[in-house]
Each structure stands twice: as C-alpha cells, then as structure tokens.
C-alpha cells in the first residue's frame, strides 16, 4: 500500500496479483470502492477510503467474470458481476460482515 500526493492529485496504489491477464479486465468504481475480476472468476472489492483493510474477495462464479458495475444507491451498496454462468448482485455490507 502506498499513498502519495503529487501537486493536488492524490494517488493510491495497491498491488494485487492475478493468475489471469489484466489487459481486458472490467473495472467498476464507486465513491469509495473499486471492483474488478481476480483470477478470472473471483470478484475483488477494494475499499479506497480504508487502505489498511484487505480487499474483499467474493467467490460465486464458475466462469470468467465479464462485466462489473455498482448500483446507484449508497445504502445498500450493491455491486453486480456477470459471467456466462451467473449474474450475481452482491450486498457489500453483508459480504463484509460475513468475512469478519
């Protein structure tokens, strides 16, 4: 994790390794979160407002995730991921609580 400030631009960096190439990975961002496929069929959620928390890894797809988007409400904060086998709507508060 590395946070820096260049002029008036805040930069945050977090390194996550994946078994799949990242050249065509869908990326979705909301106010405080980024979501992207990891290792093809796993959804990774990074909370950009809390850089000390580990990313949330959501497992449920059997095929590679091809699309990711956030809902338009903050409460509940939902993210949708799609693959050839499933379309899954994840409630991030509930998913985070299950991990804890």
UniProtKB/TrEMBL annotation:
Superkingdom of the organism of origin: Eukaryota
SUPFAM superfamilies: WD40 repeat-like (SSF50978)
Entry-linked InterPro entries: WD40/YVTN_repeat-like_dom_sf, WD40_repeat_dom_sf, WDR27
Identification of the protein by name: WD repeat domain 27
Organism from which the protein derives: Vombatus ursinus (Common wombat)
